Amino acid sequence: MSTLLIAVLSFVGFIVAYNTYGKWLASKIFGLDPQAKVPSQELKDDVDYVPTKKEIIFGHHFTSIAGTGPIVGPAIAVFWGWLPALLWVVIGSVFIGAVHDFGALVVSLRNRGQSVGEVAGRMIGPRAKILFLLVLFMGLTIVLAIFGLVIALIFSYYPESVLSVWVEIPLAVAIGIWIYRRGGNILIPSIVALGVMYVGMAVGAYLLPIDLGKWLGVPLLGQTYFNVVVIWTLVLFVYCFIASVLPVWTLLQPRDFINSHELVLALILLVLGLTVAGFSGKADLFASAPAVAKDIPPDAPPIWPFLFITIACGAVSGFHCMVSSGTSSKQVASEEDAQYVGYGAMLLEGGLAVIVIIACCAGLGMGIFNRTVDSTSLGGYRFEAIVNEGSTSPVVKHDAWRTRYATSESVINPDGTTKVVGGWESHNLKAKVSAFVDGGGNFLTSLGIPLKMGIAIMAVLVASFAATTLDTATRLQRYVIYEIAQTAKIKPLTNRYVATAFALILAAAVALLQGPSGPGSGGLTLWPLFGATNQLLAGLAFMVIVFYLVRRNKPIWFAFLPMVIMLLMPAWAMLHQMFNPETGWLFEGKYLLFCFGLVVEGLQVWMIFEGIIAWRNARGNYPELPPLETVAAD
Length: 634
Description:
By secondary structure, this protein is mainly alpha-helical. It is built from 24 helices and six strands. Helices cover about 65% and strands about 5% of the residues.
């Protein structure tokens, strides 16, 4: 019952925040004007700039910012206990993340749909524009490389998810043509498409799991480039090229609208499953995992500052400013929709992160639970499996939280030294995702849904969102490359096909490098950079928002404090990763990561320095937009 109460209180808090703090920002700070001319109307081209109903753009925006972020981050962060993760998600999403997304959307709306990086050039200075765009470019390259690998691994680990994800694409294209060419309604066709996807989940789970490893007789990863991950990554990047150069109404909008229905239905099922499991006592957050973990392996980083870069999506994420100012601002049909899209979508993502935290603890702790055994007498938390269940002396196989998060052991290296493995190091991508998929599947069993089908539902949910983020990130990278090329006068890269191809070739080169698990795992090499770089981007986006407000003589305290937090915490974490004497990249010989970290830190310091220079003359000095020119990429 306490588990359900925590979930309910979190959701109520989000609703109250939207109708109080969110409305205050919309009316008193940003002064949203329904009569104002927005980029989708002023620059309408039916490719990138397309006026869109707020329900549809909400679906696109939410599914683009969500991806696997609010799943992977919280699934890792419960390593330190569920309470710190929960508090950061709730407080962070209300006062930092939603303000960040909302602010970036409004700033872009009032600057002809330009990215936050482009706006930085006018709000702070020309050099700030280049610096910000370079950070965006590097961040998106990492996102593309990693998310391509993540989806490839999801397809490999959960082959039952593949059919449903790919069936959605032709359905979305058909719906897009139906709406924008025939004037049809989107709601009923999208619900029908969702039904077809659920049929695809059942077919994938019970009849036709698409397992390329078995079909082609190739390994998941290994010493050869002919492996499952490489094949899926290449297929996904070809799809991304096609999806990101098409008009947004063709695939992006209808697919994301379907995905938003998928998420809402999955959340309803999860909440209902949590309700039933909570009332029955099967799901017990307090009995399944520690509120604040004490059994931390020695290889784990400190909770301060790493909690704040581990949970990004779900609390605050720099990637969101790219979505707000990259695609969403070009589709919002009225300024008054900005609160619903920018602030509201982030709160819903916070709600998803809350469910993930509970699923990774209480849901995981439901695994084959035997009431005849008092788990507290076993010296741990709820266990995941029992052999000889029903006997007078059942044997515990292992407890769920401790095995997934706290187990570690010492191994002897070839040179005779010892090293701790497991614990934090055991957080491979499968472990991060499967904790939510398995825990969520357990919740669904409370509703009578077979575990196999429940896992298929959760796996498709994760894969669909990751795919949405991947092709949205491709489109965003194309905008960034266009803006860099326009500034540097590199004409070929202002073409949308050339810019998109350049973005994907670079990302593929990184993703398919020789990594820690062989060819095709290059994304894993860059994974340690993702958290700090992404959150530093949020701090820099807050800088642009603060300068926008200062130049318009608006209050800044509500954005200034989050800016300081999001500049300090990621920089602290990055420096720890680089220079820690025991695990630092410099001392472990990870010179690629170390050099990349130096570049990112250098750009951040330079950007802050530019802000300090510009601050003296910023108050009330708002630079007007230049005469209207075409700002969309060809």
